[in-house]
Structures are given as C-alpha cells and as structure tokens.
Amino acid sequence: MTVRARLVMALAAAAVIAAFFAAACTQLPPFGSDLHPYGERAVAAALAHRTANVVSSVNFDIRAFDTLGEESILFGTVLGATLLLRRAPDERRRRPRPGRVLPTTRLFGTLLLPITVVVGVYIVAHGQLSPGGGFQGGVVLATALHLAYVAADHRVLRRLRPLDVLDVTDCTAAASFTLVGLAALAAGGAFLQNMLPLGTFNQITSGGTVPLLNAAVGIEVASGLSVLVAHFLDQAVELEDPDADRSDKEHRPWGSGPTSPPDGS
Predict the structure, then answer these.
(1) What are residue 92's phi and psi, to 5 degrees?
(2) Among 139, 143, 150, which Cα is nearest to 110's?
(3) Is 70:134 a contact under the CB 8 Å cutoff?
(4) How far is CA 141 from the centre of its chain?
(5) Going along the chain, which residue ranges are E strands?
(6) In the beta sheet, which residues pair with residue 92?
(7) Per-residue pLDDT tens digits for 213-258
(8) For residue 201, how many other CB atoms are within 10 A of its CB?
(9) Which of 256, 254, 252 is nearest to 265 (CA)?
(10) Which of 7, 127, 141, 165 is 20 to 30 Å from the Cα of 133, by its Cα?
C-alpha cells in the first residue's frame, strides 16, 4: 500500500470518527445546567452495588471493560519497553559503582520506604471506599521500592527488587482481570459483570468484584512500573557499549591524553 493510499484511508477514518463524535456531542447536556444525568446514574449504581467510592465503581464496575483496555495498554507498554531495552549481544554488564548519598537523604529514604509501602497498600485495599485505587496505589508502591535507589544505590535496589518475580506478577495480575470477567461469563452473567456478594456498604469487603479488580490493577501497575524503571536503570547504570571507549578515543582531539600522535606525525 502506498503512502498516498494510507493517507486517504486515515483521513476517511478520521472523518467518520469526527462525524460520530460531533453527533454524540450534540446530545450532551448543556454546560452550567443543574441536570447531571450521568453523574446521577453513576452515583445510584455505585450505591446499589455497595461501592462507596463512585470513581472506583465507574472504573471497575460500570465501565470495567474500558479499564481492562487501559490496563492492557500499560502491560503492552512495559512489554514493548522490555523488548527494546533488553541487553544486546554487543553490550556487556559492568559492576555499578557505589553511589555517594548524603546522610540526610539516606535517613529520609530509609524512613519513608516502609511508610510509603504501607500507604500504597492502604490506597489499593481501600480503593472502593475512599479516594484512590489500583492505579494510584500501584504508582505509590513502585515509588516506594525505588526509594531504596534514592537512599542507597543501584546494588541495594537490585537486592530488594526480584525482577523475575515482578515479571511473573505483572503478567499474572494483568491476566487475572480478564479471568474475573470470564468467571462472570461462566456464572451466566455478562463479561466483567459484578457477580459476587456485595457485602455491607462502606466495608472493606463490600463492592463485589470491585475490590478484586482494584487489587489486580494495583499489583499490575506496581509490578509493571517497577519492571519498566528497572530496564531504564540497567541501561543507565549497568550496561556499556564495548565500542564506546574506542569511539571516544577516535573523536578525542589531538594532544589530549594517550591518543596524541607521536612526534613528527
């Protein structure tokens, strides 16, 4: 297919999408009015399904299928970055040098690491009850892990970060979201339908499948971001190009260091 043909197809598809989008916007309620049909329906559905946090109800119950797509985008991003940043055959691993950390930075990093882990777990576990959830809590957990890098160095982070386990955890958590939806189908409902007992309102066990999907997203986000940052740090800290030194010598100006030409050249 030629470039011109691809451009024509893209413009035609964009025109169709723009037409449908414009038609949908004409049916939206006017700005500044007291009528909020979507918000009222979302709040009613959240209360009916025993979910105190309406945002989590929307993400993991009302539009759980959309959230599956968002989670898959993150998983695909981590997978693509892992493939692109994997060690090339001409790269070799070097031992990272111990970093120099200020005593105050080491102290605050050491104190904040366990506190940040507890906060991240709390945000994930209480996502159906209070502001937060799997996406936010997963980012906090990944940040907590890398406080070891801030407070110490890359060697300490590697000891605290089981990369192989995180790879498996990332895949398992991403797949578990789909498995919950398939379980609802097997039980005779719709895909990702809230089929579990709803529990008591404003309790940590309430919400049916919302806590399960919320936890799956939290684990996937925490593991995926940790794996993603790990590969970037490995590139920056541990991998070196064997041709780097030779290239540097070739481009070094005459008269600077051991590459200076001999007398008379």
Answers:
(1) -130, 150
(2) 150
(3) no
(4) 11
(5) 92-93, 239-240
(6) 240
(7) 999 999 999 999 999 988 888 777 755 544 544 444 454 444 444 4
(8) 15
(9) 254
(10) 165
